[in-house]
Amino acid sequence: LAAALEIAEGMGMSATNCEGHIGFADLPGETDYIQEPFAKDRTLIVAAPDHPLAGKEHVRFEDLKKENFLLREKGAGVRDRFEAILRTKDCVIDPLWESRSTKVLVQAVEDGFGISVLPYCLIEEYLKEGRLAEIKVEDLCLERNLNLVYHPHKVWNDPLRDFMDIVRWYGHDEIRAMKTTDGMFHGQTDTNTLLL
C-alpha cells in the first residue's frame, strides 16, 4: 500500500474519485459529502508572553485593531474564519505580513513582531512551555469540529476501514484532551475536514 501527501487549497485534490484518493480538506458550508465529526479543535489568538494583551482579562475586538497581525495566507481556513468573525464585529485588520508556515509565524510571535491566529493542536507545546500566551477576547471562541468526510458512494477496502478506525480512536482521545483554560468549549463552531 503506497501513500502520498499533497497539500492543496480547498478541494484541490480530485475528490470526485470514489475509489482512490484520500485527502485532508476544509469544506465550509454545504457539501454533498458525508461529514462525521471525530474530534474538536480550537483556534487561538497568541502573542509573546510579555505582550500587554496576553495578561489582560478583558480584551475587546476594538483592542485588536491596533495590533500587528501575522497571519496565514489568504484562503487559509483559519484566517478566513477569523476574518469573517471580525467582520461581524465591525473589526477590520490589515496584517503586517503573511506566511504559509506555522513555524515561521510562531517564531515571529515569539520574537515580538506581532500576534497571530493559530490552531491549538499546532501550538500546544509552545503554550505549555510558556513560549506563547493566549489572548482571550470577549465573546470570541474559534472552536471547530474536525470531520471525517467521504463520498456517499465511496468504495471501501480493509486498509481504508482500518485507517478510519485509527482516526476515530485518535479523535476520541483528542476530544477528552482538548479544553479551554476553564475546561469548557464556547461559542462559534467551524469545521475542518478529513476527506476520504
Give the topology:
Elements lengths: L22 E3 L8 E14 L13 H4 L4 E3 L5 H12 L8 E2 L3 H9 L4 E5 H9 L4 E3 L6 E9 L7 H20 L10 E8 L1
Parallel strand pairs: 3-4, 3-5, 7-8
Antiparallel strand pairs: 1-8, 2-5, 2-6, 2-7
Can you describe what's shown?
With 196 residues, the protein is an alpha/beta fold. It has five helices and eight strands, in the order E-E-H-E-H-E-H-E-H-E-E-H-E. The chain has helices at 61-64, 77-88, 102-110, 120-128, 158-177, and strands at 23-25, 34-47, 69-71, 97-98, 115-119, 133-135, 142-150, 188-195. Strands 1, 2, 3, 4, 5, 6, 7 and 8 form an eight-stranded mixed β-sheet that branches. Helix 2 links the parallel strand 3 (69-71) and strand 4.
